[in-house]
Amino acid sequence: MKQRKIPLRKCVACQEMMPKKQLIRVVRTPEDAVLIDLTGKKSGRGAYLCGKLSCFKLAHKNKALDRALKAPVHSNIYEQLAQDFTQVEEEFLAQKDREPDEQ
To answer: Phi and psi dihedrals of 38, rounded to 5?
Structure first.
């Protein structure tokens, strides 16, 4: 049986290549709203982050999301994303543990 190709994406903070399902997508929608997309299917420009809070803080410090989303991300949006990220981080890690590896 032929092995399926696993899509890889790069974390904008730590620059590590990982399977797409192990990363959290931050998306800038066509309406210029910046939000977290756990499904990975919302329309808009996306940037990927590891599921770690340290990577989110590093992305904020280096303005990596600004570059990846090709739009300025204001500080109030970063604060909202930080709150969302801490809530989503636990859910994301639990979801990742539930999914069996497809290798």
So the answer is: -75, -25
